[in-house]
């Protein structure tokens, strides 16, 4: 099944139209075949009676008069049969067996045998005009004058099948009768799936499908706009205006989405104000407590107070920093990773740390400050908790990987899933970096997820931790690139 609503509705509607057409055509074809069989049976019965009357007439004539009567028929007309006298049956070219042609031959033979049971031998068959032979010497339609057959047989512009009746009148004397069915093209009318009918069905199906597709697109276009608005809101971008037309259900959903977006926006703003207020309000009493701690006579107690107050001040700053770092408002743009990472690598080397990085020439579409903050957090962790840090960038058709690896002790496998939790620090981390708060990885993951990406942590082969930022490959519109 297609993944989109447009594809699914289109497929269901197309399948429904095809099913209805198939069922309707099957019923219509069955009815048409039944009517065609009835018409052919009735027509063949009348034709059999006419042929039996002609045979009976020739049987009543003296042998010497038969040829004169046939010549009179040819000159004057007035009969539906082309007649000829032969010494034996004329062989006919094979004719494709079809239901209606077989039914017609059986009905004519049945009627003649019922009316003339004394007929010794009887042969009834169909032949096409170009294969028709009138005598045993191979004489065909082209070998006889046109006036003999032009009012009896149809040879052009569209040939019709000819019924040939051959009966033995007496020993060595055969009567040859050739004629058309009352409906010369009865075989064509029996095919419910002829070219013109199939073409009509296909055109009907295409017309219904195109109209259905337009209706489905009209219905799903507002949903696509709602999806784009929700995606933009989730990434922190400006939300496009939703259409104010559409079905009642869509309008209700759009209004509910707008109200939800306003509530979430108010919540985010209130959260920022709350943390700013808490940070501001707590700093004043913290400073007062530090001043009062200075008045303590016991140096050990004063030092413990200072340590606790410094830790409290650090927690407040860390919480505020977590909120700010996770909510960086920027527009996505094309970023050359070599330039972005190269500046960080130079700063690390100036600090006396060992780091390896090779230029890749790869660019990504992201928010510059946010991506820099995520990479910086991972890089700082690698520098604090490991050594000999390396950064590598790789690209596939669907994503870009920014891998940061250290050669430290790594992380126990069972602890990998908890590294993103706030304030979680392992024993090795507390020993290596006592000023850390355990918020960097969570902030980095939130930033990467806001870019529709994924932050993967795993122990590297040979030791150390490998942190990989995986971002989807995106293409900016021309206007944004300019």
From TrEMBL:
Q: Which residue range or ranges hold the HAMP domain?
A: 217-269
Main location (coarse class): membrane
Protein keywords? ATP-binding, Cell inner membrane, Cell membrane, Kinase, Membrane, Nucleotide-binding, Phosphoprotein, Transferase, Transmembrane, Transmembrane helix, Two-component regulatory system
Task: Pinpoint the Histidine kinase domain residues.
Answer: 277-475
Q: Where in the cell is it found?
A: Cell inner membrane
User: Per its UniProt record, what PROSITE patterns does this chain match?
Assistant: HAMP, HIS_KIN
Q: Which top EC class is given?
A: transferase
**Which CDD domains does this entry report, sorted A to Z?**
HisKA (cd00082)
Q: What protein name applies here?
A: histidine kinase
UniProt lineage: Bacteria, Pseudomonadati, Pseudomonadota, Betaproteobacteria, Burkholderiales
């Amino acid at each position: 099944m297609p993944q989109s609503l447009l594809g699914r509705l289109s497929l269901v509607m197309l399948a429904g139209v095809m099913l209805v057409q198939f069922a309707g055509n099957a019923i219509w074809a069955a009815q048409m075949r039944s009517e065609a069989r009835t018409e052919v049976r009735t027509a063949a019965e009348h034709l059999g009676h006419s042929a039996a009357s002609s045979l009976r007439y020739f049987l009543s004539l003296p042998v010497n008069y038969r040829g004169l009567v046939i010549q009179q028929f040819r000159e004057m007309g007035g009969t539906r049969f082309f007649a000829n006298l032969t010494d034996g049956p004329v062989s006919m070219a094979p004719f494709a067996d079809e239901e209606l042609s077989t039914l017609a031959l059986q009905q004519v033979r049945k009627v003649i045998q019922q009316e003339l049971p004394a007929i010794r031998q009887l042969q009834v068959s169909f032949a096409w005009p170009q294969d028709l032979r009138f005598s045993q010497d191979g004489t065909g339609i082209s070998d006889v004058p046109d006036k003999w057959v032009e009012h009896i047989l149809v040879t052009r512009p569209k040939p019709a099948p000819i019924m040939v009746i051959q009966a033995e009148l007496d020993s060595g004397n055969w009567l040859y009768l050739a004629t058309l069915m009352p409906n010369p093209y009865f075989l064509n009318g029996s095919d419910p799936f002829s070219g013109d009918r199939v073409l009509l069905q296909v055109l009907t199906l295409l017309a219904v499908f195109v109209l259905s597709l337009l209706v489905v697109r009209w219905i799903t276009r507002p949903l696509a706009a709602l999806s784009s608005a929700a995606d933009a809101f989730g990434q922190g971008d400006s939300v496009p205006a939703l259409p104010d037309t559409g079905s009642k259900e869509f309008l209700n959903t759009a209004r509910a989405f707008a109200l939800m977006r306003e509530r979430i926006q108010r919540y985010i703003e209130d959260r920022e104000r709350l943390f700013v207020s808490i940070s501001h309000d707590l700093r004043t009493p913290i400073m007062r407590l530090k001043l009062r701690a200075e008045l303590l006579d016991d140096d050990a107690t004063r030092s413990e107070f200072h340590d606790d107050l410094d830790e409290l001040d650090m927690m407040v700053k860390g919480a505020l920093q977590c909120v700010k770092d996770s909510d960086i408002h920027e527009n996505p743009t094309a970023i050359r990773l070599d330039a972005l990472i190269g500046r960080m690598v130079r700063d690390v080397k100036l600090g006396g740390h060992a780091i390896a990085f090779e230029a890749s020439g790869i660019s990504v579409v992201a928010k510059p400050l946010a991506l820099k903050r995520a990479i910086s957090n991972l890089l700082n962790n690698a520098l604090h908790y490991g050594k000999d840090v390396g950064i590598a960038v790789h690209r596939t058709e669907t994503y870009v990987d920014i891998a940061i690896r250290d050669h430290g002790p790594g992380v126990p496998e069972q602890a990998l899933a908890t590294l993103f939790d706030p304030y979680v620090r392992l024993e090795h981390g507390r020993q290596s970096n006592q000023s850390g708060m355990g918020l960097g990885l969570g902030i980095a993951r939130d930033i990467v997820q806001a870019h529709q990406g994924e932050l993967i942590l795993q122990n590297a082969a040979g030791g150390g931790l490998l942190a990989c930022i995986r971002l989807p490959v995106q293409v900016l519109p021309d206007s944004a690139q300019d």
